[in-house]
Sequence to fold (118 residues):
Amino acid sequence: MERVREKIAREMRSGIYTLLILKAINDLGESYGYGIQRYIEEKTGGKIKLKDATVYPVLRYLTKKKILYAYWTEPGKGVPRKYYSLTEEGKKLLEDLIADYRALVKCADAVLGGDDVD
Fold:
């Protein structure tokens, strides 16, 4: 039973984390992986702490699909950073995903919490 719960919970989190990553990039204008992780952690009061193994595959996938634009910088000191920003297609996708998320939560609440859907 525990494995089933873990699998279902992992699948639920996966889509939500992708949405949060997109929203973080939108809010920040552009950012690099660690900055995105910090932003989400701060906004959730430390309740969501995304690992590199979660964030970077999502960033690579969304860049490949042209949802994100990515470029490298070479700071005067330290290591180069790869920055990400939303493309126009990415901005539209984020808007649609937020609407989908809100509609789904409202319907799920109607089933799980007994609230009626307007």
The two ends are 35 Å apart (CA to CA). Strands lie at 31-32, 68-73, 81-86.
